[in-house]
Amino acid sequence: MKVEPFEMERFQSTWQNVVEYNLSDSGVRPLHFRDVLADETTAARFLDYPVAYSQTNGTPELRETIAGMYPGASARNVLVTNGSSEANFLVMWYLAQSGATIVHTVPSYLQIWGLARTFGLRVHPLPLDERRNWQFDPEHLKKAMARKPCAIAVCNPNNPTGAVIGPEERKALIDGARDARAWLLSDEVFQGAERVGTHTRSLWDPDGKTVITNGLSKAYGLPGLRIGWIVGPEDLISSLWSHHDYTTISPAFLSDRLAQLALEPRRRKAILRRTRAILRTNYGILERWIEGVYPELAYVPPTAGAICFLRYPFDLKSGELAMRLIKEQSTLVVPGEHFGLDGYLRVCYGASRDYLIVGLGRIAAFLKELGSKGPRRRKG
């Protein structure tokens, strides 16, 4: 088995602790332990916990709390994992046994894409169209389903565009998966990080062949807890638990307990309010920067996530442009080619106000310098 290189993750891990300004992340600035523990009584009780093994599929309390976020689900429909990345890994390991092809939206976070290829599956791209506000054409999905895939994989809200699947596209996905008897796999790790609009409706269907992955890293600002989860039919969850026995065995005991606190309904609402407040404030900074400092960047305003997918006007590969930005301005963003679509950069706007302003200033200085001497992309 040849492991498909995960270029984006390697690129970020190589440079994010080297550069002076890292705008390559996709979440809001993290919470502190004191924010989760909230009060002295809770903190004291937490400090009395042993540093022990946890329930391997997640404690019943945590699984019940997670299940409560998905209508019709119970704790038996939930498997807790070490981050949403492990959740995606386990699902793709399972799916590799049941088919030869998956349909995958592009641009997207390409972990599932890379895992599918690593496990020997063929991947058929379902393009998202910037002219349609980063929605796919339902007719393209119909053609893709003729390949009889074992699964359709989406990221909703989408990474890197921040788009949420529209009503017409949602119906096409559900109908297409049902008619083909395929799994509908939805990575929903940005759910709850909506800058505008309502809370994104999950693709979870207690009566359907759906599997949802999610976690605490993006919308909740708790990436260091490494808590993710899978929600699916009971027989699938039972099988994935067996797969989980061969990977990390269990989530960390202390992370499980902190996740219980973070997902307590009132605390969860407060955390998501914080996230949305950061997004709304910082998006204004980003928007004013683009319009007032570098208006040649084109973009569709993101609905969710601390991310904006910017189309630049230069005839230059996005990977080369991102590397030059590192070398010349010590600033990190993610090239569009790492999401399967060149000619774009993904910029994170979830940092603190002053950090974001200076980081964007460095990007502007670089782009202006590049524009004064570099080749422009042909129009049309």
Walk me through the structure:
- By secondary structure, the chain is an alpha/beta fold.
- It has two domains: 7-32 and 268-369, Aspartate Aminotransferase, domain 1 (Alpha-Beta Complex), CATH 3.90.1150.10; 52-264, Type I PLP-dependent aspartate aminotransferase-like (Major domain) (Aspartate Aminotransferase, domain 2).
- It has helices spanning 7-15, 33-37, 40-47, 60-67, 83-95, 111-118, 138-145, 167-180, 234-244, 253-262, 265-292, 318-329, 353-373, and strands spanning 21-22, 78-82, 101-106, 122-129, 135-136, 151-155, 183-187, 210-215, 227-231, 307-311, 331-332, 334-335, 344-348.
- The chain has an eight-stranded mixed β-sheet with strand order 2-9-8-7-6-3-4-5, sandwiched between helices. Strands 10-13-12 form a three-stranded antiparallel β-sheet. The protein has a two-stranded parallel sheet with strand order 1-11.
- It is globular and about 60 Å long.
- The protein starts with 6 loop residues before the first helix and ends in a 7-residue tail after the last helix.
Salient structural properties:
380 residues, alpha/beta, Aspartate Aminotransferase, domain 1, Aspartate Aminotransferase, domain 2, eight-stranded mixed beta sheet, three-stranded antiparallel beta sheet, 13 helices, 13 strands, globular
Strand content: 15-25%
Distance between the termini: 42 Å
Q: What is the average per-residue confidence, as pLDDT, rounded to a whole number? A: 96
Uncertain residue ranges:
none
Number of helices: 13
Secondary structure tally: strands: 13
CATH topology (fold) name of the largest domain = Aspartate Aminotransferase, domain 2
Order of helices and strands: HEHHHEHEHEEHEHEEEHHHEHEEEH
- Provide the number of structural domains: 2
Rg over CA atoms, rounded to whole Å, is 21 Å
Q: Identify the overall geometry.
A: globular
Annotated CATH architecture of the largest domain: 3-Layer(aba) Sandwich
Going across the major beta sheet, what is the strand order? 2-9-8-7-6-3-4-5
Structural class: alpha/beta
Biggest beta sheet attributes: 8 strands, mixed
Summarize the amount of helix as a percent range.
Answer: 40-55%
